[in-house]
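Render this sequence as a predicted structure.
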Amino acid sequence: MEKYRIIKSLIFLWVLLFLPIQLFTQNTRFTAAGASSRVFSLEQTLNTLYSLDNRGEKEFRWDPFLQEGLFNIGGHYGIFSTSLQAGRNGFLMINNREIFSVPLPYIERGELVFPEPFVTTTHDAFARSISEDTSNLRIAAIIIDPGHGGRDSGAVREHTINGRRQTVAEKDIALNASLMLRDMLVRAYPDKRIVMTRERDTYMSLEERTAIANAVPIRRNEAIIYISIHANAVNYTSARGYEVWYLSPEQRRTLLDESHFPDSPELRQIMNTITEEAFTIESMKIAQSILDSLKSTMGNALPSRGIKAENYFVVRRSHMPAVLVELGFVSNREDAILMTSNVHLRRMVEAVYKGIADFVSDFEQSGGFITQR
C-alpha cells in the first residue's frame, strides 16, 4: 500500500507541475463542471465501467487519506483524484496518455459518489482504449508440446555415435528441443505466455496435453498457437529429413460449444465452419513459415520432406492453429547424430523459432485472421 501511495502521489504531482505543457502535447478533453446534478453510487459506477470488458481483469482502489483512486479494466488504467465536497473539478488520467478535466467524485453521507459527467467521460475513454486494443489481434500464448515422455519413449533406436553404442529416444530429443525453444521464445516475447505441456521426463496423455492448451484464457483480441515437437522413425534406415504437419482440411472439429449463439444453432454451425477454416489457414501458414526457416538454416545438412496433412490427435483436439514438427528420423544414423548433438539440435530449434517468430510478426502486423473462441 505504501508503494502504491508513493507512485500515485508522484503521478499527480507530475500532472500538476506539467499540466500546461500537457495541454498542448496530449490528447486532452474537458468536461464542463455542473453539466449534470445526477450522481452514481460506487456500485453503479463499477457496473457501468466493468460492462465494457467481460473477460479482462477488473480492479478498483481508493485511498481516502490521499483522496486518490484507480480503475483497472482489462489492463487499462484510469487514475483520478476525489474531493470531500461536491462541485470541485480535477483531473482524470487514462493509460498515462489522456488527461481530462472532470467534476470529481466526492464524499456524501460517508459514501463516495460519482458525478454523471465523471462517469460518462471515464466510460467513453475506457471504451475507446478497449476498442483500440481489441481492434489489433495478437498472439497471446504459444503452447509447446514435447512429444511422448515418461513411460512413453516414442521411437527408440540404437546407433554407434562417436565410437560408442547409444540409445536414441524420441522423447528425449523432443524435450531437449522444446526446452531450447521455450527459452528462445521467453527471451523474445516477455509479453506472451509460453506454456509447456511438460518440462520433465514425465508421461502425459494426449487428452491432458490438449486440455492444457485449450484451458489457456484469452481475450477477444488474442489468439494461441500450438507447436508439437517430435522425431520420426520408420522400419528402414534410409529415410531422412524434417517435415511439418497440420490438421487435414477434411477433418471437422467442434470449436464452438452451445454457449456460443445459444438461440441459433444454425448460426453457431456457420461460425464454427468459418473458425475451422481460419484455423486451417493459420496452421498452414505456421507450417510453411517453419519449413521455410528450416530449409534456409539447415541447407544440405538435412533434407526437407515438405508440409503434410494428417489427423494427429494433438492437432485435431487443440482448439487453435496447431502444427506438429518432425525434426528428423531416429531410425537414420545421420539424423540421429544431428539430433543428439546440442550444437546441431540448437540450429534446428533456432530455425523452428525463427519460423514461429516470422508467423507471429506477419499475423500481428496484418491484424490476423483467426476468429476467437
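Summary. The first strand starts at residue 29 and ends at 30. Residues 161 and 282 are 39 Å apart (CA to CA).
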